[in-house]
TrEMBL record:
Residues 441-601 form the Helicase C-terminal domain. Keywords: Antiviral defense, ATP-binding, Helicase, Hydrolase, Metal-binding, Nuclease, Nucleotide-binding. PANTHER family: CRISPR-ASSOCIATED ENDONUCLEASE_HELICASE CAS3, DEAD-BOX ATP-DEPENDENT RNA HELICASE 47, MITOCHONDRIAL. This is CRISPR-associated helicase Cas3. One of its GO terms (molecular function) is hydrolase activity. It comes from the Bacteria. GO terms for biological process: defense response to virus. In the N-terminal section; belongs to the CRISPR-associated nuclease Cas3-HD family. SUPFAM superfamilies: HD-domain/PDEase-like (SSF109604), P-loop containing nucleoside triphosphate hydrolases (SSF52540). The keyword rRNA-binding does not apply. Residues 5-191 form the HD Cas3-type domain. Pfam families: Cas3-like_C_2, Cas3_HD, DEAD. InterPro entries: Cas3-like_dom, CRISPR-assoc_Cas3_HD, CRISPR-assoc_Cas3_HD_sf, DEAD/DEAH_box_helicase_dom, DEAD_box_RNA_helicases, Helicase_ATP-bd, Helicase_C-like, Helicase_Cas3_CRISPR-ass_core.
Amino acid sequence: MFYAKSHPPESLKEHTERLLENYELLQAIYKPKLLWMDGRTWDLLYWAAVYHDVGKAEPVFQNKIRTALNKKSLPTQSNHDVPHNYLSALLIPYKDLNLSKEETKLLAQAVGYHHERERDPDKMQIKENYESNIVPILDQIEAHIGVKLAAKPRLKAVDWLDVRQRLRPREGEWFYRYVMVKGLLHRLDHAASAGVAIELAHDYDVGDYVNRFIANYFGGKKRPLQQFAEQHQHDHVIAIAQTGMGKTEAGLLWIGKEKGFFTLPLRVSINAMYRRIQDSKKIGFTSKQSQNDEERAIGLLHSTSMDFLYDNNEKEVEVLYQYARQFAPKLIVTTIDQILKFPFYYRGFEKELATLAGAKVVIDEMQAYEPRIAALIIRALKMIDEFGGKFMIMTATMPKIYLDTLQKELAHSTTPLFVDTFVDDSVKRHHIRLRDKSILEDADLICCVGEQKKVLVICNTVKRAKEMYDVLKKQKGSIPVKLLHSKFTQADRARLEAEILAFANDKTAKGIWVTTQLVEASLDIDFDLLFTEMSVLDSQFQRYGRCNRKGLKDIAAANVYVYTRDISGKGSVYDKKLLQRSLSLLETVDGTILLESKKLEMIEALYDPEELKKDEDERSFYNIFTRTLRELKERPLYEITGQEAQDLLRDIQQILVIPEELFLAHETQQVVEQFRLSKDRKERRLLRRELERLTVSANRFKAKQVGIHRAGLPEELKDMWIISCQYDPHKGLELDQEIDPFS
């Protein structure tokens, strides 16, 4: 018997049969839908599935598995450690398959690169292993697999695996077909290796569930945005809509019966949406009951999704996580770093792109992304369009430069792009008052109002939020004052987020919460009054959404106070010139009730491309956006790994640190020791989760200045550090206060 893997033991024949079962399902679902997959290309995918792992039959590879299984080794004449995927490419009987030159190259590269390697193939080593180790047992391999193999190695196939020969966009349709074959081969192989189905609940229609929800709770009456989304299910869509327009339902109605990916910028928002879509009292889109099992219809995919599933007592967490990782559920709620890395052309990018070629993608809250990420999203949407997928953008605001760029990129698309704006000026929520002073100078007013109302204070930086908290605490009297920002441990932040939600929902509560822009999009809270530092307009308007959300409160007097002096984060958090122009625009509505339509006018003026071009600073909004888009278009293929692409998307300047005093606590040391001793994978994950709850996300440079080390941390926890500074459960990490060694 020839083995494909050792844990658990599986034969090459069994593994290949798993792929072919998945192939049949994939073809049944997607054959009429995929733009670049004609009948011949489906044949190429079939042959890729059949031959992708035949190189594993080579005795040197077999002996690695046999050693792990305590079985006797096979005899070898040549002992070069040749990657099996290169040998697989040689074993394909190209002539017998009647392939054209282009098809041969495509198939050789799809199979030869289904595992991406750091090193190029060594032609002589491959030839020696083939002739010495494979030829003598060729009949046995053919009998085991049940297919004919090449009697003589076609060494030209090795030349096609040279990185300089790899298929690239300039080769037109053959590149598109290659991406589809290789990407779908990855899906087939990874699902088979993980032991999960390649598609789940494929005949489910999330639109049906939304329609039932609207019928049960709203008498079947759909809002204009929801009607617009449903009418344009076969098109690309951009919907600019204020809060309270039913955006989630609109996005799901647009996805309808197709496979869908719903993206949001923040994990906490994604977790909330995942819960809401599954909630049986709401949309109730969960699982399909099949004859032998249930098929999970919805998946959750982000960097800490497994922890969330554990925390919420989900059953079979590891299986649910694998389903989502392999893109199996009909609907996946996710972050863009999980599905939109492919514009970096990292090694293995084809899996993401081929999946999205047969799916619909919703980008929610586009306004939350900085210009560098917005450029990446626009580039990704252009590529999705080229491969036959569809997208919908939902956003509170849409800078004109983004819209103009996307329309230009899609000028030759065969799928129409529909853009519409949805505002309701009958709902009046915000009466604006500008204050020509620092927010720190108005503590008396804030405390006075806090005695009677729910007051939210938003600062631009953590440092300023702490300063504000200290000032308010000194003169608050009996008014409760709380602080929330990103520099608390995960455990304390979760506690504080639960507290602010409870406070906001308590109709009798009074007091003050001091926060940062952390609450702009992540928390569904509603306060009576907002006191905020000036910021750029899109951020500013997001903050207003945390006050009088439904427009039911009296706004005869101002309910939003904006402080325009001594603004923190100028030049570091916010572009100086955009900030100044935002202030000039906001001054025009000082003392008025700000209508939703006026907000959109102001955003359009702020991001006018002609105005943006005037800023020649290379770090300006315009230059960052246009430079990033240009670099992505010119980006070389196959040069970085998937992890490196993920790092480019995420903020890699942030590291996880555990405050030293928390790490040295007896309870923590017990967890660390348990982690060291445990051999059980699930137990170690849960113990790691306990330690993660003590971590804070900190700037790498600042943390190094204060002092970080790894003394006492297990080697496996490479992404965690211990930081030598004070931690206060009420104020968070004190990066500017080192631990006094004599205290």
